[in-house]
Amino acid sequence: MIQKLCAWLLHLAGWTLAIEQPQIRHYVLIGFPHTSNWDFILAMLAKGALRFKFHWVAKHTLFKGPMGVVMRAMGGIPVDRRKSSGFTEQLCERFAQEEELVVVITPEGTRSRTPHWKSGFYHLARQAKVPVALGYADFKHKRLGIGPLIELTGDITADMDRIRAFYADKTALYPELAGPIRLRVEYEPKADAGAPEPTSSS
Known about the structure:
Layout: H1 2-12, E1 16-18, E2 26-32, H2 38-50, E3 55-59, H3 66-73, E4 76-79, H4 87-97, E5 101-105, H5 120-128, E6 132-138, E7 143-150, H6 156-167, H7 184-187
Parallel strand pairs: 1-7, 2-5, 2-6, 3-4, 3-5
Antiparallel strand pairs: 6-7
């Protein structure tokens, strides 16, 4: 019933699912662009329509009280963005322990325009030794999809160039809020000397 309802709502809103789930058990799934609350709603509808099992991260303040139970039941994992250490390590352990795990991360970290992506997704994929899948919500064509899997090489510029090329024709609901696709270290090399920036869906 839930699967049919989610599929019907997407169809009613004019959205097309172009999602072929990667046939692997572990990966990080990028959610981009992220400029409105509709992005999350569409992702949850796609999850229900496809019975797609994935987890997502969001700021810890959203998990307070009874709503926290609901958020976790929907696959949410809380992250305290005030802490820059520990979260990546915890997720790496989950990747190692769980038979199947897909973690969705919105690298912008906020719905507002930012000068760069947060590097948490990159460090997580590298440390957990899992690939990155490129998920998107293209509001211009009303299409939800997952692009190619990318094995990150550690060459940040080369890896990000591949990601930039894929998302070049994907349009956000509010394009003016979609910042440049780059990591801070690409234009401030010393910025990545410490721990990775935590990333969340907010």
